[in-house]
Write a structure and sequence with these properties.
By secondary structure, this protein is an all-alpha fold. It contains one helix and no strands.
């Protein structure tokens, strides 16, 4: 990407593509991995909670 020798016109686009790809992939990895992890964690917590059960009716009290 920063070469100045003979034929640098041919190597510069390849260097830019490699450098740009590394930067973009690094940024995507740094930002998307935690977001996806948090989303799956929230989904897991939502589905792991037991649904509320209806309370069983209490037996009638004996008259005293």
């Amino acid at each position: 990407m920063l070469g100045w020798g003979e034929g640098h016109e041919l190597r510069r686009p390849l260097g830019l593509a490699i450098f740009g790809g590394l930067i973009v992939s690094q940024l995507l990895t740094l930002f998307t991995t935690p977001v996806i992890y948090l989303a799956f964690d929230q989904l897991g917590r939502r589905f792991s909670q037991a649904p509320p059960r209806a309370a069983a009716p209490s037996p009638p009290r004996a008259a005293s």
